[in-house]
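User: tokens in, sequence out, please.
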């Protein structure tokens, strides 16, 4: 089943008049930003992923730089992110990065 065919159980309303950030802008905010910048970048990333964009290269960035945060807002956004991010490869095997996520939450 492709992403376009999968049901979407999460709906987030956004204004369409803003230009979406590039992957490099998101990467920089997630790596080097403070908690407020990380939360805003994660929020934008979630909305863009729900709109069908794919960002497989940002998965490790989120695991390395965002998951260790103790900020409550970031933790809540991460729970939404883990719900919508693809967890399996094209052939149905679990992504190696998901094992890191499970270990981090243990």
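Assistant: Sequence out:
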């Amino acid at each position: 089943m492709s992403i376009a065919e999968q049901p979407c159980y999460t709906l987030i309303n956004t204004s369409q008049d803003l230009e979406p950030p590039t992957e490099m802008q998101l990467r920089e905010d997630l790596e080097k930003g403070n908690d407020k910048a990380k939360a805003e970048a994660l929020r934008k990333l979630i909305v863009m992923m729900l709109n069908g964009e794919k960002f497989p290269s940002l998965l490790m960035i989120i695991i390395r730089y965002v998951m260790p945060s103790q900020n409550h807002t970031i933790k809540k956004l991460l729970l939404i992110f883990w719900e919508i991010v693809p967890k399996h490869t094209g052939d149905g095997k679990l992504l190696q990065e998901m094992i890191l996520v499970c270990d981090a939450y243990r």
